[in-house]
Every structure is written in structure tokens, then in C-alpha cells.
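Exercise 7. Predict the joint structure of the components listed below.
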Amino acid sequence: MADDKKGLSRRDFLKTTGIATGTLVGGGLIGGLVGYNANKGGTGTLDKKKGNDEHAQATNTRGLMFFTNQNEFNVLSQAVERIFPKDDLGPGAIGLGVPFFIDNQLAGNYGSNAKEYMQGPFFAGESTQGYQSKLTRAEIFKQGMASLDSEAQKRFDKRFVEIDGGQMDEVLTAFQKNEVNMIGVSSEFFFKLLRTATLEGAYADPIYNGNINMDGWRMKGFPGHQMSYINEIESEKFVKIEPKSVSSMEH
Amino acid sequence: MAKTLEKVDVVTVGVGWSGGIIGAECAKAGMKVLGLERGNERSTEDFLMVHDEFRYAIRYDLMQDLSKETITFRNTRKMRALPMRHMGSFLLGEGLGGAGTHWNGMTYRFLPYDFQIKSMTEKKYGKDKLSKDYLLKDWGITYDELEPYFDKFEKTAGISGEDTNPFWGKRSSDYPNPPMKKTPLLKKFEKASNSLGYDPFMVPSANLSQSYENPDGETIAACQYCGFCERFGCEYGAKTSPEITVVPTARKTGNYDVRFHANVIEVLKQGNKVTGVKYIDRQTGEEFIQPADVVVLTSYMMNNAKLLMVSNIGEQYNPETGKGTLGKNYCYQIEPGTTGFFDEQMNTFMGAGSLGMTIDNFNGDNFDHSNLDFIHGASISLTQTGNRPILTNPVPPDVPVWGAEFKKSSIENFTRTLSVFGQGASMPHKENFMSLDPKYKDVYGVPLLQLTYNFTEQDRNLHKFITDKTAEVMKEMGAKTVMAGNPITDYDIVPYQSTHNTGGTIMGANPEDSVVNNYLQHWDAENLFVVGAGNFNHNSGYNPTGTVGALAYRAAEGIIKYSKAGGSLV
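Solution:
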């Protein structure tokens, strides 16, 4: 089934949209598809193989772009694994590369709040008014890792990475319930950021360094980037489709 | 010192649906039209790699850059207004096509009741149905008068639908394309609604059921049900958008041009006319004056209102005295709904933005409100828009939102939940309005727009009523767990709700209670037109774009008439 589906060829793609009949002449689509390689669907040519090798190499060189010491990264890793743990369904946050995903995001627009209004003056405001912190997400995460550690120290006299899973949950719950004092931001807000970022890393396209091997999608039954469901949408039965990354469209 | 450019016949501020329609119609009529767009050029070829939930639906790739401009918000006049620092409740678009690029494509006509809501409500239920604090108003135009423009917009957009809804206005012709595929999930809703005695119909859709050439000769492709519509552009050119229809139509005439990175900061007015606009080139920071015989504000409704405010055109609404019209009647929508958990796995990840079925049995005045504590209602729908994994993590009420149980349950239910939801109408209230913020400024030093808004009793009562109806439908559909939405309290700008913001530059029959006449010509400047959902006097229980499109065609006709005869069009 899966193999049939991912084989939707360029010709089918053109046919089903009416583009093959020339109706979209002058539009941008044809130009964009000229270089499209039908083999990208996974029929295994030399080119494809080469692409795979290059990809493997690229994932081997993942690293930290934001955090500066291993303890911060370990705290992050353990915390996100508690939020999204490994189980019989498949990998947890660590196995999916979520810590690297978050680290990498913090080094970019997300971490520096580049597309958000960050002009002062800053006031606390009501909850209905949303985020009013002067801190960027990068600063919040940096502080958050230290806060997780100090909360663990306070409660168990150990570092966060040294306590057991149940104790980690207790610390995280304290953050979630806004019981921990943080500077310039509420612990509840930090926890929300952490939870959301974990889900993003588990389920974003693997081009962002999380969702390794598309296992997040595989567990959830989400096929990722597929060009069309026109032949399946009327099916009474659930259709299982092998997932594909949007990178399969790149050339 | 701003550099003055060569005059054009018509300048539009923004190039989305309304700017594109004005551009196409006026350019076809031989006028020289310039569209000023602060964002980028873009086209179908920019969307080949658009199946990326994270980039587009989470990081808002197609949306406005709030670091340059946002709004401020407070629930009431007593609160301190603070900037909306992150996008949340609604998603402001930017770039060629505007919100018309990242919309879902549900294309309704507002009900005949909507356009005469005050007189029809008073006639049936008396003058005191709602308190005096609700500023109900007829629109200065009827459904019948607008019908030809609805028809025109639907033919331009190639709307796919069926005329089987017993409650909506009479149509002069059928939809240009048949409805989309009625999938097994839609049939579940259809069966349940039928057995409850309701009248389900296919959502009128701008995701096309077949390839179509519109009257301007533009081709729109057939939808592939890929499940990436809202917040995305369409890589097939199968979701009707301005950049694949009206913009190329305008360009073909040779009378039309779009200037990008042009951020308008002021409308220039002398006496009872405007002379043009001032804009900043975002790439160089240079200021320009673009003179024009006719200026048309066609940006998002918030920015249209803001530009009038910073240009001192019209009288700012004052909730204390009730005087002034600019910024008045800001409305939104409510989103009552119910989630149902099923045993069987369903193809919830497939779909299209407007793939759905709806009932109007509890919309408008289609049911008796004599014993109810609200007016109007909601369309109630089940849509199959394509669920995606980052944003869709449904768990029953007793499951925590993180940890082992959460992971199992959210994965299990990703393909086992359906939602039935209402789009509830929103009535204007004297305390809900827009004005200029006295403190915060955008990156060009222009004050931000300030929004004062909260849900009212009408909203809360309607919300409860419609929530119950959605739960009944879900039960009838056979869900094993039925989870109805919580009642609403105060409006919260953080979670996404709807990009159906309306009002602020309302239309009407006279200048005392409206900003523009029914050609959307400004009462205080005959060569200034203001077009968009800002013209709505209240918001209906539907998506707004169909009505915006109709109003834009009406305004285009007015502009062409005005260019020949001048003066007031009414």
C-alpha cells in the first residue's frame, strides 16, 4: 500500500491538477516542476542513494548552536523526555532529537523573538494580554535550565539530572503550577514554552533536526508531505501511508 | 523630505482580495492603477515546498512581522492597553494576496437578515430585544442589491458548492462549480444532522472541485485534498487566491502595477478630497508621496482604520459620548464546539480548507428567538481540513497534558477525533472599539492601533446555546466520548480563535452613523474609498470573505462611476 502511494509520479501529479492540458501555462507551477525528479519518490536510483549518503553525513554533524555547557543540554534533554517519554509506541523526545531541535531553534529567529514586538515599555498585564516579558525565549530557556537545577537542589539536594523520573515530574509540575520563582517571566509560561517546543521537535519535518527518521509522524499515523490524497480521500478505511519529508521536493 | 512621484488614476493600499479586485476592475476600465504592497511578491511557485506545518502553521511564515507593527489590546477601558507581542487570536497576513493567500476558502454570502438586522429584529422582537448598549445597525444596502456582486465574486473565484441550503438568500445563478467530494467523515455529519431534522449542505469552497477558467480567463486548478490550506499557500493553484486570479487579470491590461515593500503611513487630504498617500520604502527607508485621483484603502481592516486615524480623516468614535464613527462597531466571532472521540481510525490528516458540511438551522434569524436571551446564531459545521501533528494533540478531559499518558492518548486520538463547531455571530457593543494607542509606536514611529474588546452577554448566551447544539450532533454521530467546549468568559488574545475581525470603518445610509456610504466611498472625502471587512456593521455566523469580495466589486463599480462623473455616489 505504502509503496504504491508514494509512487505518485510527476505525470500523475500533472494530470490530476489539469496542468497537463496546458491550462496553467504562464503559471509558476510548470517551471517549478521541470526539474522534479520522479525518482525522488523513493524508487532507488544512484542519485537517490547519493542523496541519502549526504543526508546521513549531515545528521552526524548535529551539534549545539545555543547552549554553552553540557549540563544545560542534559537538563533540557531529561526534561523534554519526561514530557514526551519513550514507550512501546516508539522513541521519546531524546530519541527524536528534540533537544537538538530546541537548541537549534533558540539560536535563530525563535530564540531572539525576531518577528515579535519587543519594544518597551514593559508591564505585567493581564493574562488575556499575553506575553509581556522583556526576555527573549533564548534568555528564558537559559534561565529555565538553571531554575530546574536549583528547584531540584531545593527539593532533593541533587542536580536535576541526578533525580529519578518521578522526582523530575514533581519539579516540572511545580513549574507548570507556577510555584517556582523566575526572573522576568513566570515558571508557568516557561513550562508552556518547553512543552510546546517539545511537541514541535517531535513532529516538525525532520529538516529541522527533530522527528528523527520521521518516527514522530510514524507513531502518529501522519504521512508528512504527500502531494495528493485525491485517490484516498473517499476511502471508508484508514489509509496507512509511509511518511515523506518536504525535503523530497528539493532540488 | 519625501519625494513626489508621478500621479496615477487609482492607488490601492495593500494587494489582497479587495486591492486585487479594485485593481482588476479599474484597470480593465482603462484606469491606471498602482497597488502599494508592503510585503513581497509571491506566486504559486513559492509554495512547492509548503507542506511544512512547522514553518507555516507554527512559525507563521506568511504572516505579518510583528517586530515592525502590531496592535495594542485591553479588554476594557479601565485596563492598560499592552502590545500584542506574539500573534495568537488572529493571524494578520502580509505580502501579495494578503490573507487571501493563506485562507481556507470557505466562501459564504451573509444572510439577507444580516444587512437589515436592526429593522428586522425590531419588527419581529420589538425594540428592547437587546439592551441599548448594542449598536445594531442596518448596512445601508440589502442582500438583493448586493446579489449581483456576490455572483460576480463567486464566478471570479470559481466557488464549488450546491444551492440546497433552505435558509440563505436567493441566488441569480448556481455555483460555477459542483461541490467538493462528500467524504466518509462529512457523511457522518450529514447523517446525524438529517436524523436530528436539520438541513446539511456542502460548504461553498474556494478549493475547486474541478479545473476552471474564470470569466477573466484565469485558470484555477482542481484541489488535491493535500490537507495544507489554512496558514499555507497552494502549490497547485487550486485554492483561489488574488495572486492567481485578479492580480494577473489586472496585470494583463497593461494598466496595472504593484510596488512592493511600500508601507503606507498616511493618507494625504486637502479640503474635502484626498491627494494621495505617503509611504516608506521598507528596503531603503526613503519616503515617497504617491499622488492619485482616487485612493482606496484595501489593507486588513485594522490597518484601514489606523490609516484613517493617523491621517485625521473622519471623527474618532468615543464610547463615553457615543459620538464619532471611526473605530466603531468592532466585532469578532465566537467558536462554540464539541470534540468527539471515536474507536475507529479515520483519515483526519487528509482534507482541504473548505471541505466540510454545514447546517444553518441555528444561524441568523432562521429560528425563533422569542424565548432566547440573544439574537442571531452560528453556522454549525464539520470540516475535514487536514489535521497536522504539532497542533493536533487531542486528549479526553481526564488525561494530563504531558507525560506518558499524554503521549499515548494524543497519538491514539490524532486519527480518532472529530469536531463539530459553530462560527457564532458577533454583535456590536458600545464598549468594543478601535482607536489610536497613545504610547506604543510601530517601527516607523506611527502610533499602533489600540483594540478595546471583550465578549458580552450576547456572546456568552449564544455560545452556550450553540455549544449544546454541537454536542447533540456529536452524540448523534456516535462518538464514545463527547467533550463539549467550556463556556466563554473574557476574550483572551493568546489562543488562536479566528481571523474574522470586522468593523471600524462601517458602511451605512448616512454620515451620522457610518464612515462610508454603500459604495464604500468616504463621507468626508469623495475620492477616498475604504474596502474590507471593516465595512461590516456586525459580524455574521459565517466566514467573511464572500461578503468582502462582493463589497469590493461594488466599490470598483463606484470608483469607475466616480472617475467619470465625480461627486457623491449616493
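Discussion. Chain B touches chain A through 78 residues (CB under 8 Å).
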